[in-house]
Here is the input.
Amino acid sequence: MSDVAGKFITLEGIEGAGKSTQKRALVEYLKSRGLTVIETREPGGTPYAEAIRELLLEHPAEPVSAQTELLLMFAARAQHLDALIKPSLDAGSWVVCDRFTDATFAYQGGGRQLPSEWIETLETLVQGPLRPDLTLLFDVPTAVGLQRAGKRGTLDRIESEDLAFFDRVRAEYLRRAELNGERTRIVDASQPEAQVAADMIRAVDLWSAS
Ligand code: T5A
Here is the structure.
């Protein structure tokens, strides 16, 4: 657990894993326990970081280099941490964040195949010792996740990558879950929504009782 007063919970998974759906259920559950909960997401979470999100996800006229993408993810994160996450944790709130640095390891490390040492260096620079207290990884076969995400219609720049890219993303998420087993719980997100929610709440209860 981190040294801060509140708790920091991150939700991770490939596109269409159901993070946003489950985030709503989790926030409602934590509030029903009387906790003050801040709901946020990455990239984004503050007006300035949301502007960086737009830059990251739009389809620009020129190709975006993997390094540019990596640095923008951490630029948005630095702002998000200073302006929202750290002050909220210091005030004793629980912060529930849709994606965080595990996503960078999975997408820019696994997907784009950038060296994980670069990501570790930026992680230390931007976050210092701050890591999530609990990470819920919603795991779903790549084809299922992409099919769900595809139902929304238009695809953003990152969603437009091919199946092999998202297979690498999922594999890296699973590798990191094993590496960070003390803070990560894997939830089988291929099940019906209500079952995923029940498994998630059980995982959170077991973690908070430990
Ligand atoms: N990114 C992000 C990086 O590359 N590096 C980083 O460091 C970070 C932080 C934006 C993009 O940025 C990238 C990753 C992303 O490409 P995002 O806003 O989290 O990240 O966007 P998405 O992952 O694209 O969000 P999605 O909305 O696609 O995925 P969710 O939130 O996992 O899925 P959700 O809940 O919206 O559900 C999608 C659909 O599936 C249905 C829902 O009703 C919805 O229609 N659904 C289910 N259907 C059947 N069974 C279930 N159990 C279902 N759960 C949900």
